C-alpha cells in the first residue's frame, strides 16, 4: 500500500507537472494480491476454516470427467486469429483465441489466447500459463507484458515482438481464469464477482479437457503448467487435480511438471518474509525490524503491539513488486512517462495494454465478446484458500512431479525470503547445494538449489515480481532448463 504524499512531494509533483493521484490508479487496479492479503489477514484472524479439499486429492476429484465432449465442427478454425491489430510484419506462428465452456449449467466460459511455437511447433511441448491476483488476467499480464510473443507499444494500438518469448521453445496457452476475469464470464452473474481456489482449479481442468478436443494433436504431448504470484495456488492445485485423476487412471494428460515464479505459498510465512525483505534491503531500520520481531509472532492472532510496530515505518513511494524499479507518472497533459530508466522495462505498459484490449477491433479479431469493459484484474470475493501450499507441493513431489519454484530477488510482495521459509518447511534433502547459474552470455542469471525428488528452487538476479518483464532473457533460460530437467550451467560457457 502506498503512503500519502508529503507536502514536499506534492510541491515537487507540481513543479514537474505530474499528477500523483493519476500515477497511483494503475497500481491499485493491478494490486489484487495486496487487497487479497489484507482481507485474508482478517479472515484468518477470525479463525474461519474452510474444508480442506486438498488433504485427500484422490478422493476430492474422483467425480470429475476424464475426457471432454467432442468439439463442434470447425471450432478450432473459428478460433484462428488472422492477425492481431497492429501486429508487426512477418509473424511466423499461428495464433488462436476464443471461449471454452466449463459449465453448461451456469453458462461459465473461460477465454484463452494460444500461440504455437515459432519453429517446429509439432514437436514442441504444451505449456499453460496462469497469472495470479487472485483475479488477474494471463492475457493482459503474461501474454502482453511478460512472456508472450508481443508487447503493446505506448500508442496502445500497435505491437512489437518480444525476442525472448516463451513460444520460442514451447506452444503456450494463456488462460483468463476464473470467470469474471478479463473476457471470461459466467451467465450466473454472482460467479463473476465470487470465486475460490477449488472452483478455479476444477474449471481449469475442465477447460483443458475441452480445449484438447478442439486441438487433439496436443493430446499426449509433454505438458507443463507455469505461472506466478497467486499462481502459487493456481498451478499446484491444477496439477494436483490432474495427478490425482492420473493416479486413478482417469486422465491421460501427460503432465511433466510445474514452474512457478514468486509464488504466494503461505499466509504467515509471506507476512514475515515481506517485512524481513524490507529490512534486508535497507528499507527498514534495525530498530523497527527488531520491534516487529519482538512483538509479532507471524501467526493467526497478533496483538496491538504488533500492529503498532508494523505501522511505525514508511516505505516511500516505491513499487513493492520491484523495489528498485521506476514507477509510472501521468503528467497534467495526460502523457505517461517513467520516473527513471530501466533497460527493457516500461512501468506504464499496463495503461497501453488496457487501451489495446478495450479496442473494439482487437476484441473482434480475438473473437471476444464485443463491447466488453476489459480490465487487467477483477475485484473478486475469494471464498476458499488453504493457509499453506506446502502440503500440496509436498504431495506433488512425492507423486513424482517435477516441481520448480523461482523468485525474482527484488520483489517485496511475494519475496524470496518468504519462499525460502516455505521451501524449508518441505524438509527435503539437498542434493545440489546453492550455487550460481549462468546464461549463454556468461553472466550470472541467478542462484539455484536442488533437492531429493527433483524439487528445485532458483532465484533470478535483478528481477521483480513479474520476472519475464524485468529479466526476459534470464527467465527464458531458466524456463528452458526446467523443461529439460537440468539446471543452467554452473560455470560461464566461455570458461567451461
UniProtKB/TrEMBL annotation:
Uppermost EC category: hydrolase
Tagged with keyword Protease: yes
Domain of life of the native organism: Eukaryota
Cellular component, GO, one term: vacuole
Residues spanning the signal sequence: 1-23
Organism of provenance: Triticum turgidum subsp. durum (Durum wheat)
Any GO BP annotation: proteolysis
The keyword Hydrolase is assigned to this record: yes
Entry-linked PROSITE patterns: CARBOXYPEPT_SER_HIS (PS00560), CARBOXYPEPT_SER_SER (PS00131)
Enzymatic reactions: Preferential release of a C-terminal arginine or lysine residue
EC number: 3.4.16.-
Keywords (A to Z) from UniProt: Carboxypeptidase, Disulfide bond, Glycoprotein, Hydrolase, Protease, Signal, Zymogen
Subunit structure and binding partners: Carboxypeptidase II is a dimer, where each monomer is composed of two chains linked by a disulfide bond.
MF GO annotations: serine-type carboxypeptidase activity
Protein name stated in the entry: Carboxypeptidase
PANTHER family in the cross-refs: CARBOXYPEPTIDASE, SERINE PROTEASE FAMILY S10 SERINE CARBOXYPEPTIDASE
Family statement: Belongs to the peptidase S10 family.
InterPro entries registered for this protein in UniProt: AB_hydrolase_fold, Peptidase_S10, Ser_caboxypep_his_AS, Ser_caboxypep_ser_AS
Amino acid at each position: 500500500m502506498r503512503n500519502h504524499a508529503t507536502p514536499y512531494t506534492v510541491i515537487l509533483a507540481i513543479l514537474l507537472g505530474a499528477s500523483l493521484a493519476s500515477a497511483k490508479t494503475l497500481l491499485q487496479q493491478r494490486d489484487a494480491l495486496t487487497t487479497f492479503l489484507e482481507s485474508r489477514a482478517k479472515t484468518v484472524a477470525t479463525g474461519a476454516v474452510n474444508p480442506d479439499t486438498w488433504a485427500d486429492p484422490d478422493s476430492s476429484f474422483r467425480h470429475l470427467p476424464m475426457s471432454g465432449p467432442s468439439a463442434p465442427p470447425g471450432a478450432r478454425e473459428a478460433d484462428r486469429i488472422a492477425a492481431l491489430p497492429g501486429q508487426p510484419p512477418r509473424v511466423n506462428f499461428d495464433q488462436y483465441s476464443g471461449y471454452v465452456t466449463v459449465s453448461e449449467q451456469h453458462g461459465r466460459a473461460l477465454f484463452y489466447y494460444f500461440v504455437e511455437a515459432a519453429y517446429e511447433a509439432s514437436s514442441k511441448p504444451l505449456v499453460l500459463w496462469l497469472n495470479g491476483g487472485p483475479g488477474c488476467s494471463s492475457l493482459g499480464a503474461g501474454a502482453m507484458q511478460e512472456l508472450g510473443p508481443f508487447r503493446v507499444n505506448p500508442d496502445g494500438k500497435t505491437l512489437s515482438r518480444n525476442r525472448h518469448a516463451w513460444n520460442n521453445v514451447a506452444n503456450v496457452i494463456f488462460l483468463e481464469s476464473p470467470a469474471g476475469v478479463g473476457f471470461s464470464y459466467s451467465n450466473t452473474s454472482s460467479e463473476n464477482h465470487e470465486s475460490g481456489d477449488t472452483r478455479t482449479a476444477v474449471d481449469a481442468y475442465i477447460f483443458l479437457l475441452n480445449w484438447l478436443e478442439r486441438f487433439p494433436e496436443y493430446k499426449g504431448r509433454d505438458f507443463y503448467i507455469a505461472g506466478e504470484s497467486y499462481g502459487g495456488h493456481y498451478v499446484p492445485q491444477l496439477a494436483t487435480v490432474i495427478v490425482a485423476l492420473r493416479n486413478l487412471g482417469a486422465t491421460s494428460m501427460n503432465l511433466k511438471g510445474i514452474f512457478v515464479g514468486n509464488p504466494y505459498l503461505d499466509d504467515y510465512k509471506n507476512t514475515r518474509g515481506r517485512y524481513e525483505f524490507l529490512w534486508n534491503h535497507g528499507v527498514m531500520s534495525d530498530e523497527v525490524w527488531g520491534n516487529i520481531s519482538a512483538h509479532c509472532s507471524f501467526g493467526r492472532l497478533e496483538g496491538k503491539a504488533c500492529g503498532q510496530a508494523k505501522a511505525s515505518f514508511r516505505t516511500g513511494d516505491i513499487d513493492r513488486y520491484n523495489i528498485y524499479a521506476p514507477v509510472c507518472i501521468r503528467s497534467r497533459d495526460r502523457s505517461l512517462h517513467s520516473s527513471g530508466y530501466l533497460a527493457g522495462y516500461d512501468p506504464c505498459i499496463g495503461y497501453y495494454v488496457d487501451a489495446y484490449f478495450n479496442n473494439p477491433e482487437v476484441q473482434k479479431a480475438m473473437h471476444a465478446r464485443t463491447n466488453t469493459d476489459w480490465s487487467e484484474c477483477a475485484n473478486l470475493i475469494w471464498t476458499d484458500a488453504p493457509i499453506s501450499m506446502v502440503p500440496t507441493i509436498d504431495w506433488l513431489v512425492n507423486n513424482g512431479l517435477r516441481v520448480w519454484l523461482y523468485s525474482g530477488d527484488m520483489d517485496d510482495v511475494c519475496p524470496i525470503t518468504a519462499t525460502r521459509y516455505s521451501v524449508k518447511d518441505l524438509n527435503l534433502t539437498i542434493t545440489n547445494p546453492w550455487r550460481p547459474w549462468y546464461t549463454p552470455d556468461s553472466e550470472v542469471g541467478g542462484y539455484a538449489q536442488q533437492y531429493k525428488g527433483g524439487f528445485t528452487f532458483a532465484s533470478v538476479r535483478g528481477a521483480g515480481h513479474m520476472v519475464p518483464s524485468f529479466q526476459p532473457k534470464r527467465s527464458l533460460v531458466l524456463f528452458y532448463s526446467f523443461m529439460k530437467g537440468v539446471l543452467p550451467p554452473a560455470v560461464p560457457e566461455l570458461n567451461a
